[in-house]
Amino acid sequence: MALFGSNGLRAWIKAQNNGVVLSSYGVSSINDLGTGFVRINLNTNLGNSNYSINPSYSQSGNTNPNRVAYITSSSVGNTSFEIKINSATGGVNDPDWWFCSVHHNN
User: Fold this and answer.
1) pTM for this structure?
2) Which of 41, 65, 66, 83 is the most buried (most CB within 10 A)?
3) What is the pLDDT of residues 2-51, one digit of tens each?
4) Rounded to an integer, what distance in angstroms lies between the CA atom of residue 51 and that of residue 31?
């Protein structure tokens, strides 16, 4: 199985909370959609939306309860998807950095 390409890791990104991409593979851009909300744009059409998205984030301190990164299910398409960060109170918060990887067996 290939580590990159059609049978493995299709994309990954590390970006700042303001949408600045620090490092990536297979990602054309990131759009800041508001507090705690981004769209990741892939540079290749995956042909379908049946892929695994592994979102994560970093923060400078502890929150209790912890925040949760999640994919908005209606946003998953062939070329992009959206990630939100729930805050400890149920709202949304910006992380320090966004992290994400995409796996697709096409």
Assistant:
1) 0.84
2) 83
3) 455 556 788 999 998 888 899 999 999 999 999 889 999 999 898 888 88
4) 20
